[in-house]
Structures are given as C-alpha cells and as structure tokens.
Write a structure and sequence with these properties.
Elements: E1 31-36, E2 41-46, E3 58-63, E4 65-67, E5 71-81, E6 87-104, E7 107-114, E8 123-126, E9 134-140, E10 150-154, H1 180-183, E11 191-194, H2 206-214, E12 218-224, H3 228-231, E13 247-251, H4 253-264, E14 268-272, H5 274-283, E15 284-285, E16 297-298, E17 301-305, E18 321-325, H6 332-341, H7 343-355, E19 366-369
Parallel strand pairs: 1-19, 3-12, 3-14, 4-11, 14-18
Antiparallel strand pairs: 1-2, 5-6, 5-8, 6-7, 7-10, 8-9, 9-10, 12-13, 13-17, 15-16, 18-19
Helix pairs in contact: 6-7
Length: about 375
C-alpha cells in the first residue's frame, strides 16, 4: 500500500510524444475518458459526447478567467558613467517576468528571472510591437516574499502595452503562434487575470454548451485567476510539506445562491477543471444556515485561496463530478484528482490513457469522473 502523502505515490511513466504540442480542431473533437467511480470502470468517448452523461440533475460550474499576455522578456537597463562623467543608460543582461497580480495601478507582482540580485531599484526594458519599450523597475525585492516574488512598477499598463506574450507552459516546446491567442483561451473567458488557462474548459464549444442546455443542464461561472498555486511543482517528498501559492477568486451573489440551492435540492455539482474545484471548496461555508438553506452555503464575494487537496485530506463538500485534463506526474493537480476519484483508480486510468495514446497536459484530451 503506497504512502498517500509521499510524492512518489503520484508518479507515472509518460512517453514524451504524448505531451500535446497543439490542440485538436475543433475543440470538442478531443478524446474523453469517462471514469465511473462506483464500478471502477471507464469508457473511451470524445468530448462532444459529454452531454450524454449530464442532464437536468447536473449543474456545471466553470472558471471564466481570461489568460493575459503575462510573459515579458527584455533586458536590464544599466546606468554607466562615461569618461566625461555623464551617466548613460546601456543594455544589460536578459530578464524575464511572469505577471501574476496587479497590486495597485501599474504595480504588478510576479516571478522574475535575471542574472542579477532581485532587489529594489533593478530597472529593465521590454520591447513592444510599436517600438516604444515598456519600462519597469523592481520596487519590492524577492527576499521580502516567502515565494521569492517581486513587485515591479511599469511606466504604463504592461498587459495593454503589447510587450507580453501568452505564457504557454514549459512543456510546449515551440514558440507562441498566432493561433494560440484563441486556442489557449476558453470560449467563455471574460475576466482577465490568469497566467495560465483553466485547461479543462478549452474543450467546450458553443455546440457542446447548446447541447447541454437542451438537456436541461445548468451552467454557472466563477472566477479564479490561475497563478503559481496551480502549477508550481512539488519539491518535497512529503507532500504535506508543500506550500501552495495564493490565488484570487470571485463568486457573484447569484451564482453563490444558485449553487447552494442546487446542492440542497440534490443536484449534482459538476466542476469544470481543478480551478473550479478549488474555488468551490474554498468558498463553501459548512456552518452557514438559515433562510431557505438548512446547512452549508457557498459564500459570494472575492477571496484568496491556497487550498491544497490531496488523498486522505479534507473531504469534498461541494463537487460531485469532475471534468479535467490529464496532469503532470507528481503535481498538485494529479493529487486533487486522485483525492476525488481515488488514487489507485486514477493512476490505472492514466495507465490506460497512455496505452491508448491519449494526449496529455494543457492542449491534451479530457477526463470525466462520475
């Protein structure tokens, strides 16, 4: 019996050629592995078959965050005194920043890479298509944050400047292409702020959503801006020692009410992706009551979550079904799915997916856990 709190319990062999480098077209032509938890069996389908498994007893909750061009690349700006004693600005070494959160107007928190020490006063420049570089300066050093993140002040909005590009994951071994601007975004994305896509939602098309509606399946949206909490790797063998980075979420009053009502009426809550799971489970107040609801309610408003869901940890209080992609070995995402579906069943399904040459990770195929 494996130690469920050991990182090695979530490892599996994945041939490199199964890591999807581009999405399928159309989106809903991706494959769908349907897992039945009660029987421990699965079926091979395509994503456009999803509506066959859902009906008026189901309420889907999707993350409508929008991916921003969060990856900035440029050079340091160095002040060098010439022989005449005049300070001049010169181009220094390469730098790269991943935008994570706007702290205040023009000040962003993010992960920063440079050969220099990441202290206040480090200045940098990022080229833009218009020719006028985006200028920035570190105003809070990495030593002031537990996760080593910095704050940088820009001379204008870095998202609108055109300096950034989509932050495709590191395992996609190619440059960003024009088509990624559409394909690395859900068709229902609305609220900008993510450094990565909520990838389970990438498979949805207007046709699939219409088919779900025709079957009486309800659809609600929350927002969680995907950051380091979702994709930061686990580096400790004991997974309980891993610290999740906080991510921001928002739930409207109407969605909170409708999800709570659906839960208490016996409807099944279907989370579209692990980010929706983390939002719902973070915002559920099991002590809430009164009014039309006997016990437990989804809280509306904005919040921050560093929730870490793993087998033999906290129980699921909201989510009854899960739509998700195939995740990296030893990742917190695989741990969450293993907590929901059972570690042995999920890893057996992953082995089946490898055998059947499913496509893995962000641009890969999907799984429905019933």
């Amino acid at each position: 019996m494996p130690d469920l709190h050991s990182l090695s319990a979530y490892d599996f062999h994945l041939p490199e050629e199964l890591i999807a480098q581009k999405p399928v077209e159309p989106r809903d032509a991706s494959r769908l592995l349907v897992i039945h938890r009660k029987t421990g069996t699965w079926a091979h389908r395509t994503f456009r078959d999803l509506p066959e498994y859902l009906d008026a007893s189901d309420l889907l909750v999707a993350n409508n965050t929008q991916v921003i061009p969060a990856r900035l690349a440029g050079h340091r700006r160095l002040e060098v005194k010439g022989a005449d004693g005049v300070l001049r600005e010169e181009v220094g070494g390469k730098v790269e920043m991943l935008l994570l959160e706007e702290i205040e107007p023009l000040v962003w928190e993010g992960a920063f890479h440079a050969a220099a020490r990441l202290k206040e006063g480090l200045k940098f420049s990022m080229p833009t298509p218009g020719g006028v570089p985006l200028l920035g300066e570190i105003v809070r050093g990495s030593y002031l944050a537990p996760g080593g993140l910095i704050w940088a002040r820009f001379d204008r909005d870095p998202v609108e400047s055109g300096a950034g590009e989509l932050p495709l994951p590191h395992y996609i071994n190619r440059k960003v292409e024009s088509g990624d601007l559409a394909t690395y975004q859900t068709v229902y994305a609305k609220n900008r702020g993510s450094a990565a896509a909520p990838t389970a939602g990438l498979h949805f098309t207007p046709a699939v959503m219409s088919a779900l509606s025709a079957r009486g399946t309800d659809w609600k949206e929350v927002t969680l801006h995907v950051g380091l909490g979702t994709f930061r790797p686990v580096k400790t063998e004991g997974i309980l020692d891993h610290v999740m980075h906080e991510e921001r979420y928002a739930i409207s009053e109407s969605v909170a009410h409708d999800v709570t009502a659906a839960k208490h009426s016996g409807k099944r809550i279907v989370a579209v992706g692990t980010t929706s799971v983390r939002t719902l489970e973070s915002a559920w107040d099991s002590t809430a009551g009164g009014g039309n609801f006997k016990a437990g309610a989804l809280k509306s408003g904005t919040g921050r979550t560093s929730i870490f869901i793993y087998p033999d940890g906290r129980p699921f209080q909201v989510v009854d079904r899960l739509i998700t992609n195939f995740h990296l070995p030893k990742s917190t995402l695989l741990m969450l799915v293993s907590a929901f579906g059972g570690r042995d069943l999920i890893l057996a399904a992953y082995a089946e997916a490898v055998k059947e040459k499913y496509r893995f990770f962000s641009y890969g195929d999907a799984m429905l856990v019933l």
